[in-house]
Amino acid sequence: MKLAFATQNPFKLKEVAAVYAHLGIEIVSMGDLGLHDDIVEDQDTYEGNALLKARFVCERAGLPTIADDSGVNIDALDGRPGIYSARWAGEGADGRTIVDHTLAELTAATSDVRTAQFVTCAVLVMPDGSEFHEFGKVHGRFITEPKGEWRDKFPYDMIFVPDEGDGRTFSEMTLAEKYTVSHRERAFRALEKHVAGQLL
Q: Is 78 a catalytic residue?
């Protein structure tokens, strides 16, 4: 059984494949399916953006499709950037620009509270039109300068320390260590019951 994943991010693919490895399901990315479209995420909720991507791939591939939308809600910035986490430093900004912009916004904030929550909404869309969604969250705080290994597509990992960790940023952890406290892992783990129920 194949399960399509509406992503072109190899780190996301690896993370979710690890979550579902025990199910014996082959997970294929958009690239594997020959889909290289840049899907415009123009919805106003995490769920809306995730469903937009999953529906797009499911319709074209004819396969059960999972997708997610993630972001970070920073308390000192009234919940920003939220669904705009990948774009709030400017459309097309690279990861390092996003990190610099985030740290500058926190420095300029009237509050010195640096707590935040990473949020992921994971969805499953079936060719018959059935749709399922679940959320995952992780609480933590932002530090004042980047630490750890640079991972393209996950810029915030260098400046975010989860509460449930040992004081290291996500980027200072191995990918396996990050998975144990990751918001994405939690969302897709919660979605697993729907994936298993529909595919197995």
A: no
